[in-house]
Amino acid sequence: MFGFKRRIYLDYASATPIVPAALKAYFHAAQTFANPGAIHAEGVMAQRMLTDSRERIAAHLGCKARELIFTSGLTEANMIAIVGTARALELRNRSLQNTHWIVSSIEHSSVLQSFVEIERMGGTVSHVDPESNGIVTVERIVNTLRPNTVFASVGWGNNEIGTIQPISKIARTLRSYGKVNNSQILFHCDAGQAPLYRASHVHTLGVDMFALGSGKLYGPRGIGCLYLSNRSNVAPISFGGGQERGLRPGTEDHALAVGFAEAFDIITRERESEANRLLKLRNTFMREILARIRNVVINGDLAHAMPHILNISIPGERSGEYLVLALDHAGVALSTKSACREGEARSHVVETLGGDPWRAQNTLRFSLGRDTTERDLRRVITILEGLFQT
Fold first, then answer.
1. Claim: this prediction has a pTM higher than 0.85
2. What is the SS3 assignment for 242?
3. Beta strands in the chain (DSSP E)
């Protein structure tokens, strides 16, 4: 359409490619195909790979290896943390009646749908909206707390608008409130892609549960992990064998774990330099868009956001979905919102920020990554500008 033949991928918030070293490590580990639970030599070798991977990831999180369980991905990690806690309370008290749960209203659907299940089980759930800049403040959490609050969930880096939430401040507030009221409030955090650009030490963050997905962090898809502190009490929500502390039954895939650990090693080493590179690219990209396309609205607070996400709304009759399809035809891949929400008319995240109704309907999420170049972004601006001249 515009003469640019090479496709440009700007949907890293939906899925990241596997870094070559992680892919190589995965294929090498996959040559050992034995079950890690077997006691023969091949099984012992697979178990060693699994153990080593767990220890490597735990080292980056600043926790003990035994505090990590492997899952099939971020969605399952979130579900085990949230619904597993509810299941444990239900087994102990026979009901979730008189329990209060808090969740940020801008969470990923894997989190929000887990809280739908909490309500079905009898718990009371409060949804906390962010400020107009996309930040979930400590004050808004405090105003939602009750003496019977047992659980809170706030994601670290929002996957649509990129805002980084004050997780450590919220954690300290929850602990203080619990001490005053002689209660315990467990704090769950969907890490999202924040570990790509922020140090991910769970004790510094103050979380009780920390969910990660390899497919968001340049590792292989099909695996994630969940940190559980010694305050956590989680019951199984699926049944079978006793793998992963009985919380995630089924034969572990040690090769995926090896690939995940290798990717985590790489993103940790490159974290600072890549964050700085993408921040410069994104900010230049933003300035060019504002200069060349009229009345663009920036969603979120770029001063307190992950460096690779730019979410905008453009007024007019052309919806975000229309623009995404037009850009795709021109060779650019991006999304309007979370991939799990594509097909819905509006972004539930942007809708909570307020403003005119068109703002939540006409969203575009540009998410940059390791292969994004300045030349790519210049091409995208030219294409986007052309769409508004036709």
1. yes
2. coil
3. 8-9, 68-71, 100-104, 124-128, 149-153, 186-190, 209-213, 224-228, 297-298, 309-313, 332-333, 363-367
DSSP-assigned letters across all residues of 28-56: HHHT--S-TT--SHHHHHHHHHHHHHHHH
Q: How many Å apart are CA 37 and CA 109, to the nearest integer?
A: 33
Cα 84 to Cα 112, 114, 122, 151, distances in angstroms: 15, 10, 14, 12
pLDDT in tens, 42-53: 999 999 999 999
Residue 34 tokens read as 């034995």
The span from the CA of 144 to the CA of 101, in Å, is: 9
| The 224-228 sheet, strands edge to edge | 68-71, 224-228, 209-213, 186-190, 149-153, 100-104, 124-128
72-93 b/e (C-beta count within 10 Å ≥ 16 → b)? bbbbbbbbbbbbbbbbbbbeee
Burial class (CB in 10 A: 0-12, 13-18, 19+), 303: exposed
- 93 touches 85 (CB < 8 A): no
Give the separation between CA 194 and CA 204, rounded to whole angstroms.
14
Q: What are the tokens at 122?
A: 């009898």
Q: Which residue bears the tokens 């060693």?
A: 48
What are 87's two structure tokens?
């299941």
- Cβ contact 251:37 at 8 Å: yes
Per-residue pLDDT tens digits for 170-212: 999 999 998 888 889 999 999 999 999 999 999 999 999 999 9
* The total number of residues written for the chain in this structure: 390
Active site residues: 340
